[in-house]
Amino acid sequence: MWSLPSVASILSGTYPSHHGTGLHNEVLPSEIRTVPERFSKAGFHTVGLSTNPWFSADTGLNRGFDEFDSFSIRSLLSEAGPMKILSFLKNLQAYSAGFSTTKRKHSPDFLFNEVVKQRLSELATSDQPFFLCAHYHGVHHPYYPSPTFRDRFSDLLPLSADDAADIAFQRTEDPYQEIAASCPYSEEEWGAIRNMYDALLFQIDSLLYRLIAHIDDLGIDDETIIVITSDHGDLLGEYDLLSHKLVLHDALISVPLVVRGSKSFPERDDQLIQHIDVLQTLMQELNIPTDGMHGVNLSEESREFTISQRGQQTMQKTLDRVHEFNPAFNHDYVYSGLTTALRTRDWKYIQGDEEAALYELPNEETNLLDVYPDRADEFNTRLAEWMQEYGQPLYSDKRSKFSSTVQDRLADLGYVE
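^ thats the sequence. predicted structure below, dont judge the formating
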């Protein structure tokens, strides 16, 4: 589970093994109608803004946006203008790394948030309805919260917030090297990593609060539906792993979801929901056609199970990087081939090419496949039926072509060398 297949599912309303983007495809297949294309046809002005190179024209995920901008730090500075840059400099301590000269310690999210607010101000002056999708940098390794927020939970630590931030940065700067060594950290180091991760969450929450307050100040809050979610989580020691892309643990696939302004979205917080359900429900509330999408309308029905997937290519590229540091690395929880997790409220069934596991949640370490063979057979049958109906793959022969600037950005995120 990682950004590209997750964002592709959000913007296509289809499952990963079907659209294949970030699994067996580098670019979203042209046969799939995107969510922004559907909004645009319904008369909405569509705007896409991104600081993540995977959500870009290079992967075909800009399709359907009337306006689309994928930002690097340099282009953000240009877009923001002098006054917002001055505001960013004043807020270095609160929303970035302070006066550190280490580029990877800094976050673009304050400037990006200002750009998103400016676009919203412009859109609010028009009578035309709009659909805006903004992808923030968010909580991404290496973890290094700002000086203002890093001590938010530091009273739970036996060391200072600054020392904890330095440990978290050092241990998560190259997750491949750390995974290769099986993340041999002390309890104090794990505590520092998790504490700084939580501090980063609080930091991005603060920015989103400012964004929502701006929407309210514009006077469009009564007629605006806001959706806040994440493309994936991160492992923080589960299975002795960091980062994402190798397994389908709940730490990766269970993400926050906040919806405000919908008249039909269910208020229950114990319901099984997928990203593709969110937009399907909201689009049907707005009378926008959703034919060909794979979600359910949550105002009319409940989901029996969720599906998460990780591709063979994703796994192999990650393992190739790990094997550079430890050629003998092997892991019991990393399955070969296309790996799919079928999750109910109480159970998770995971199937790869040659391996399978059954977990009674929240325990995801004790494989009960041989203890409950009938239940495992039931899940295997349900997964096969689901794959036949929804999981059949589409293929695209288009290749993503990242510029040198985007390659640098992907290196900053730890995806390429």
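Residues 95 and 206 are 9 Å apart (CA to CA).
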